[in-house]
Amino acid sequence: MRQSQLFTKTRKQAPKDEVAKNAQLLIRAGFIHKEMAGAYSYLPLGLRVLNNIVQIIREEMDAIGGQEMILTALQSPNNWKKSDRWRDDAIDVWFKTELKGGGELGLATTHEEPLTALMSEYVQSYKDLPKYVYQFQTKFRNELRAKSGIMRTREFVMKDLYSFSRNEEEFRTFYEEVAKAYMKVFARIGLGDKTFRTFASGGSFSKFSDEFQTICDAGEDTIHLHRGKGIAVNKEIYTDEILADLSLKKNELEEVKAIEVGNIFPLGTRFSEVLGLTFKDESGNAQPVVMGSYGLGPGRLMGTIVEVLSDEKGIVWPKEVAPFSAHLISISSGNSDVVAEADRLYELLREHGIETLYDDRDVRAGEKFADADLIGVPSRVVVSEKTMSEGGVEVSNRSNGGTAIVPDSEIVERLRN
Ligand code: ATP
Ligand code: MG
Is the domain of 261 the same as that of 350? Predict the structure, then answer.
């Protein structure tokens, strides 16, 4: 992509009312646009990152047997009345609206009810189970506080997966597989060493649910972390009794701020019973399906990456989520040989499938470098009179600042690694 053509613009200042670092940087770097508090549009650069995160999640969900589908964001009250969650005091973030012809509708906050009702039409026998389905779909939540940039918005895409199992044991086995798949996702997107499985409240059907919390001062949650064991307890359930349950000692735990990037939740038969999702077991007896739900927020993950990995110059994207792998910058000062060389390299990188943002703009070198630091592509490739006289290009690494002159013949190889 030629930067002169790219639909975006970097800015010196973020909107005055924007308090979150992730949104400030993403707006300044031209990834997102603020529509209003708690609502952001994704510009081409931002969508590339979001899509990369979505794709990583998709691969890991498919790897454990997930099947992707998509439910509607418009929801009928009927299913929600059956589970007694249509009430605003049961779900306090509902956005509701009305049909022209009369009657209420909900805008999806989550999907347990409609999916359970849908499943009841497709699951009859033990042979139809287990099933694991997931979606990337827009949720609407009337969040009271929306001060965390793209980490807490009133409209956001969620990956929500739901498991439908024949019994508790089958459910637990899959639940642990999801936990492992989540850790793979966090490792791939660059948050692996800062994200910890955290015991949290399980609601009425299970003692615990599990959250995945990324350590970060900007986090809204507080967790008590055991670094050695790599697990934590959410402050909300932190009591002597729970610690004893988990064989954790108070003096071995650190209290830290964290961002809940994902969670997994045993649902038992809470929804299957009220929505009539049963199956005939091998002896022909009707049994309620045992369910679990598993959420991840691609936008919250993107915001967390920015919070955790950026530096004073701008964003630092990990390789797998970066909008481009290489940022090619020509410093020509009017020298057409430099322009021709940069054009040639751009074609070369494209031919080799290296996703490249090519800063071909007619602006000062300082501006190009500052923008490159702000945008945060992992490898910067500079072509100038100087690098040409040295027989190559200057390649530098955004995350550790390492710089080297790389001969023409080795560029492709170098950028691949
Ligand atoms: P929180 O306690 O932070 O409000 P939650 O318990 O409501 O989170 P879930 O309903 O389980 O979260 O949603 C699953 C995932 O969706 C969360 O782990 C998070 O990554 C993401 N998510 C939840 N609410 C938002 C939001 N308002 N904006 C962006 N992402 C969100
Ligand atoms: Mg919430």
Answer: no
Question: Any idea which ligand is nearest the CA of 220?
Answer: 1
**How far apart, in whole angstroms, are the C-alpha atoms of residue 288 and residue 346?**
59
How far, in Å, are 84, 109, 169, 237, 298 from residue 203 at the CA level?
A: 15, 18, 19, 11, 24
pLDDT tens profile 240-286: 999 999 999 999 999 999 999 999 999 999 999 999 999 999 999 99
* Same domain membership, residue 303 and residue 393: no
What range does the domain containing 300 cover? 3-309
From CA 88, how far away is CA 390, in angstroms rounded?
68
Cα end-to-end span (Å), the chain: 21
**Spacing, Cα 201 to ligand 2 middle (Å):** 14
Residues flanking ligand 1, CB < 6 Å? 110, 141, 143, 152-153, 156, 158, 260-263, 295-297, 299-300
3-state SS, one letter per residue, for 287-318: EECEEEEEEECHHHHHHHHHHHHCECCECCCC
What confidence score (pLDDT) does residue 204 get? 75
Pocket test for ligand 1, best of 54, 300, 307 (most atoms within 8 A of CB): 300
44 closest CA partner among 7, 9, 11, 14: 7
Q: Tell whether 243 and 345 lie within a shared domain.
A: no
Does residue 22 share a domain with residue 149? yes
Question: Looking at the CA of 158, which ligand is closest?
Answer: 1
Phi and psi torsions of 355, nearest 5°: -70, 115
| Lookup result for tokens 């001969």 | 407
- Pocket residue to mutate for ligand 1, from 50, 111, 139, most atoms within 8 A of Cβ: 139
pTM higher than the cut 0.70: yes
pLDDT tens digits, residue range 129-138?
999 999 999 9
CATH of the domain at 361: 3.40.50.800
Q: Flag whether 99 is in a domain.
A: yes
Residue with CA nearest ligand 1 atom 1? 260
Q: How confident is the model at residue 417 (pLDDT cuts 50, 70, 90)?
A: confident
Residue 317 lies in a domain: no
Token duo for residue 116? 């359970």
Question: In the Cβ-directed half-sphere of 355, how many Cα atoms lie within 13 Å?
Answer: 13
- In which element (H, E) is residue 337 found? helix 336-351
Q: Whose CA is nearest to atom 17 of ligand 1?
A: 262
Q: How far apart are CA 83 and CA 268, in angstroms?
A: 14
The DSSP secondary structure of 183-200, one letter per residue, reads HHHHHHTT-GGGEEEEEE
Residue pair 225/196 in contact by the 8 Å Cβ criterion:
yes
